[in-house]
Write a structure and sequence with these properties.
With 63 residues, the chain is mainly α. Helices cover 70% and strands 0% of the residues. The chain has 3 helices and no strands. It starts with a helix and ends in a 7-residue tail after the last helix.
C-alpha cells in the first residue's frame, strides 16, 4: 500500500503543478527567503498581478 500511496502523491503533485495550484506557495516561499521583512501579496493580489502581466505581455506559445 505504501508504493500506491507514493504514486498517488506524485500524481497529485504533478497535477497541482500543471494547474498552477502551487504557484502562490512558491511565491510566498521565495519572498520570505529572498526579501525577509518585506510585505507579501495576498493570494488574490498575486493572481491579479499574474493575470495583468500575462495580458500586458502575452506569451507567443500555444499552451
Amino acid at each position: 500500500m505504501g508504493r500506491v500511496a507514493e504514486i498517488g502523491r506524485q500524481i497529485g503533485w504533478y497535477w497541482s503543478s500543471l494547474m498552477g495550484d502551487n504557484h502562490y506557495r512558491r511565491y510566498v516561499a521565495h519572498r520570505r527567503q529572498t526579501h525577509p521583512g518585506e510585505p507579501v501579496l495576498s493570494e488574490r493580489e498575486y493572481w491579479r498581478m499574474r493575470h495583468a502581466a500575462t495580458e500586458s505581455s502575452p506569451n507567443p506559445r500555444c499552451c
